[in-house]
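Students often ask what a holo structure prediction actually looks like on paper. The answer is less mysterious than it sounds. You provide the chain, you provide the ligand, and the output is a string of C-alpha cells encoding the 3D arrangement of the protein together with magnesium ion.
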Amino acid sequence: MAANLFSEIEYLKGVGKARGEKYRKLGINTPYELIYHFPRSYMDFGKYIPIAQADPDEFCFLKLTVTRKTTPKAVRSKLVVCKAVATDGTDNIIIVMFNNVYAFHALKEGETYYMYGKVTDGYVSREIHSPVYIQENDINMIQPVYKLTQGLTSVMIRTNMRQAVNIMKSEPFETLSENIMTKYKLMPLMKALEHIHFPESPETAQLARERLAFDELLKLQLGMSVMRTRTRRSTAFKMDEKTEIKEFFNGLPFELTDGQNEAVKEILCDLCRNIPMNRLLQGDVGSGKTAVAAAACYFTAKNGLQSALMAPTEILAIQHYKTLSGFLEPFGLKTCLLTGSLTAKNKKILCEKILSGEIDVIVGTHAVIQKDVEYKNLALVITDEQHRFGVNQRTALAEKGDSPHKLVMSATPIPRTLALIIYGDLDISVITQMPKGRKPVKTYAVTGKLRHRAFNFVRERLDEGRQAYVVCPMIEDSESDLFAIKSYAENAEKQDLKGYTTALLHGKMKSSEKEEVMKKFRDGEIKALICTTVVEVGVDVPNAAVMVIENAERFGLSQLHQLRGRVGRGEFESTCILITDNNSDDCIKRMKIMSSTADGFKISEEDLKMRGPGDFFGSAQHGLPPLKIADIACNAELMEKAKICAEEILRDDPELKNPENHSLRVDTLRLFDKDITG
Ligand code: ADP
Ligand code: MG
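The corresponding C-alpha cells follow.
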C-alpha cells in the first residue's frame, strides 16, 4: 500500500521502527504531522564570508573548495578524526569532522561546497569543525533547521520531508477560498507547506510562514468564536436592578476600593440584562477580587438564584468557601463546599440540597461541573484564576445552567493584544489599585552563599510574630524533587528554622493533610510553611510577611509574581528573597525584573517577551491550543487581518457548517483537539 498523508510515519522510506519512535517523541505520527513540523529557522548558505573575516569561535558560512583530503585517523577507540584542506581563494582552512566518516567521504577533492560550522584557531591554520554543507550547485541554498531529538538529523528529516511533501502534492488540499487568498495576499496552502520546508529564497520562506501563521491565527479565532456562539443565547436570568445590596457592603470588614466598586457596578449591570454576562475580571494578585465575586453572589442570591464559584485547587476552593461563607452567611444565605474529597454519602446529601435550591452559593473544584451535580437555577458561574482551566472546563461550567452569566477572574494580567484573542468579545473589568495601606513587597535576589543570612532575617520576622513561606520547586511526579523537598524540610527544621514550628506542604499530600496544614498555618500555629507551588494561586494569609524562594531560576516570571503575591497581603511590610546560583543572562534578567517592579502587567509582558508565546501559550494552562508558528506577541498586524477574516467567514456561516468551509472546520477542530465539537 502506498503511503498517504495519514499513514503511520513508518510508511515513509527509510523510516523504520527506531526512527519512527524518534518521530513519535516529537509528536509526529503521520506524514501530515511531519509536514506540520515547521523549521525553527533557516540556514542561508548565501550568507558566506571570506575566511579572513571568520571570527574564531563563531559559527560562520563559508564557500570552500576542497583541495586535499587526508586519511581519517582513529585517535582513540571511539574517536575518528577526518581532515581536509580547503580554500576559498583568499585563504586556507582545515575542515575537521569527528566520527562522521560518511559525510567526509562524500566530500570530493576539487569540488566546491557551501559550509556552515564553528571556526576555530587551529595549530597550523584556521579550522572549521563539523560543518554542515551543501554542494555548490544545490538549488536549496536555504536549508531549514528543525527541532531535533537525539539521533534524528536535519538530513534525515529533510529526506523524509521531501517524500511527505510529494505525497501531499499528489493529493492537494486547501482551506481558504481564492477570494480570501487574494484579498489577504496569501500564498496557496500547498505552496506554503512546500516552501516552508524547501524555500527558494528568504522571501518565499517568509511568505510561506505568513500564510501558515495566518491559518493558525484564523483557526484560533474561528474556534473561539464558534465556541462563543454556542453559548450566546438569551439568558433566563435577568435580575432585578432594584435589588438591595447596601447591607452587604456595610457588613464587609473593609471598605471597597474604587476599582472594586467600579467592577461590582459593571457586573451588577450585566446581571440585570437579558443576555448572559461574559466578563473577565482582571486584577493583580491581592487586589481583592474575591470580595467582588462575593458581591455578585450576594446579588444573585437576593434574586432567588444560585451561583457557583470554581477554583483550580482544593486549597483555594476551601479558602474561598471560608471567605464567602463568612461574608454571606450572616445574611442568611447558604453556602457549601463541593470538592472531590467528599464522601459519596455527603456528596449525595449536598447534591440534593443544591437541586432543591436550599443552597445559594456553591464553591468548589472541578467537582462542581461534574455530570451528577444538578442545580435548581444556576444563574452565575465564576471561575477563579482562570488560566488554570482549559477551554473545556470553562465551557462545561457555562453549560450547566440555562445560559448563566459568566465571570472569569484572573490574576495573570494579560497584555491587551492577547486578551483580545483569548477572551474575544468578553467584556473586561480591571482593578488597577490595591487596597489602602498595602506596601509593595521588597524583593531581593541573592546567591546560596547568603542563605544563612537570609534565614537570620526570616527568624527576626518570625520573632516579631509574622509567618513565612519557604518555596521549593517541584515538578509534579518527580520522585527526586519530592525527595529533595522532604530532606530540605528536615534540614531546615534542624538548622535554619530550628525552634520554630514548621510544616511541609506539597501536591502529593492527601487533601485532608493539606487542609490540616493550611488550617494550622492560617491559625498561626505553624510559623514557617515549606511548600511547593501549591501555594501559588490565591492562598491568603495576611500575617505571612516573608517568603524565601529556593532555586528561583526554575520559576518563570509570572509564576514568581504569583508566588510573591502570597505575601504583602496585610498591613505588614513584606519581603521576598529569591535564592539562586544560576548566573545565566536569562536568570539574571528575571531576578532584576522581580526586584525592580511589582507591576503584574509589566511582569507578564516581560515574561511573554522572554519566553515567547510558544511557551506562554503552549502550556495548557492558558486554555488555548498550542500554536506552532504564529507568534502572537509579534504578529499583531497579521492577527488583526486574521480577526477580520474570521468575522467575514463567520458572518455567513457562524458555526462553520457550510460545505465550502468543511476543511477549515476540520482543521480548526484539529487545532483545538476536537474541544469544540458538538
Ligand atoms: P485576589 O485579588 O488576589 O484574589 P483577595 O480577594 O484574596 O485578592 O484579597 C486579598 C486580601 O485583601 C484579602 O485578605 C482581603 O480580605 C483583602 N481585601 C480585599 N479588599 C480589600 C479592601 N478594599 N480593603 C482592605 N483589604 C481588602
Ligand atoms: Mg484570588
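The chain has 22 helices and 21 strands.
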